[in-house]
Design goal:
InterPro entries: CN_Hdrase_a/SCN_Hdrase_g_sf (IPR036648), TOMM_pelo (IPR022513). This is NHLP leader peptide family natural product. GO terms for molecular function: catalytic activity; transition metal ion binding. It comes from Paenibacillus riograndensis. The chain has a domain of 35 residues. Helices cover 40% and strands 0% of the residues. Helix 1 crosses helix 2 and helix 2 crosses helix 3. The longest helix is centred in the N-terminal third of the chain and has 14 residues. It is globular. The C terminus is likely disordered.
């Protein structure tokens, strides 16, 4: 099983090297991951891909622990 950081880095590296994959990742990220890496995400998971410009930075705020949804609840995905 790949760690989340390693997998994320592999996806980013592939997007930098393969313009077709990058475009597919931006338009249909679930399909891009499945086609290129064999990673299937469940239908109840939404995946969004954005491309940062050199003068942008995105800060992702995860669900609050008080919400009852913890990232560890997703470990059954075995990939992401």
């Amino acid at each position: 099983m790949l760690s989340e950081a390693i997998l994320r880095n592999q996806v980013i590296q592939k997007a930098w090297e393969d313009p077709g994959f990058k475009q597919r990742l931006l338009t249909d990220p679930k399909a891009a991951l499945q086609e290129a890496l064999g990673i299937e995400l469940p239908d109840n998971i939404t995946l969004r891909t954005v491309e940062e410009a050199s003068n942008e930075f995105y800060l992702v705020i995860p669900p609050s622990p008080a919400s009852g949804v913890m990232k560890t609840d997703l470990t059954t995905l075995s990939t992401w």
